[in-house]
Structures are given as structure tokens and as C-alpha cells.
User: Which sequence fits this backbone?
């Protein structure tokens, strides 16, 4: 016996609306993905748009199956938050005393929210988050690199090469 479907046939205007939402989610995060790719980060031009489109898709499916006012919407959002956090965790690398990739992980999380907001039709929130995400990486990233020099490791002085006589 075949499983029941949410709808036998989806009307074309609704299909076009879904396509529009998926394309908007994709386009909004493309600048962030492009920037991260250019900076040679662990996630870039493919990952960011895919996270946004997947988040938007999960929300669109949840609305179609559960309805907009269902308590199941909260579970969908919880799953998205957890899943994207897992993907972001993969972008964080630790080597010695350095941890890298936290901005990429946070940016991936924000990208998921952008896709989810588009899925719910909250285009203003999606656009603002996408802009803040991009500007934070683009403007604040170079400022971080130009900041004060890191202190020498414990037990060493500036200019100490570590050679012992």
C-alpha cells in the first residue's frame, strides 16, 4: 500500500512560489559563499547556498504537510538548528592553541536562518540577516587580521627564538 501524500497535485502557482522562495534563499547567501570561497575557508560557494536552500525546503515542506500553525513547526526548527550546528561544528578546526572556523560556523548557522525565514515568507528578516552576515565577514574580517599582535607563548619573551644554550 502506497503512503499517503500531502497533496495529490500541487497547483502551478504554488510550485512557482516555492521555486521563487528557493531561488531567493540561494541568491541571498551567494555573496557570503563567494566571500568565504575567496578567503579559502572550509565552507564556501557550494555549502552556503545549499544550507540556505535546504533550510528553506524543510520549512516549505513542513508548512505543506503540517500547516503553518502546527506545533510540529517548532520541531522542524529545532531539527534545523541542530543539523546546521552539526555542519558548522565540522567547520571548526583546532590546532595547538588556535581555534579556527568559528566565524564560518556562526555564518553557516545564520545562513540556515536566512533560508528558514524565506520559507516562512519573512523576506525582510532574511535580507537583513544575509546583509549583516556578509558585512560582518567582509568588513570585520580584515580588521581582525590587522589587530594587535598576539602575545608570545607562556614562558617566552618577545624576540626569544626558543634556543637554549
Assistant:
Amino acid at each position: 500500500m502506497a503512503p499517503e501524500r500531502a497533496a495529490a497535485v500541487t497547483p502551478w502557482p504554488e510550485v512557482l512560489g516555492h521555486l521563487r522562495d528557493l531561488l531567493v534563499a540561494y541568491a541571498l547567501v551567494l555573496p557570503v559563499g563567494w566571500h568565504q570561497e575567496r578567503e579559502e575557508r572550509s565552507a564556501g560557494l557550494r555549502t552556503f547556498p545549499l544550507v540556505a536552500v535546504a533550510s528553506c525546503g524543510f520549512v516549505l515542506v513542513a508548512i505543506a504537510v503540517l500547516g503553518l500553525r502546527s506545533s510540529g513547526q517548532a520541531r522542524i526548527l529545532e531539527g534545523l538548528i541542530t543539523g546546521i550546528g552539526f555542519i558548522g561544528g565540522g567547520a571548526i578546526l583546532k590546532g595547538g592553541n588556535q581555534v579556527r572556523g568559528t566565524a564560518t560556523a556562526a555564518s553557516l548557522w545564520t545562513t540556515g536562518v536566512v533560508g528558514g525565514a524565506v520559507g516562512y515568507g519573512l523576506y525582510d528578516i532574511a535580507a537583513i540577516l544575509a546583509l549583516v552576515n556578509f558585512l560582518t565577514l567582509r568588513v570585520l574580517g580584515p580588521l581582525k587580521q590587522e589587530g594587535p599582535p598576539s602575545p608570545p607563548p607562556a614562558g617566552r619573551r618577545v624576540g626569544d627564538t626558543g634556543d637554549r644554550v
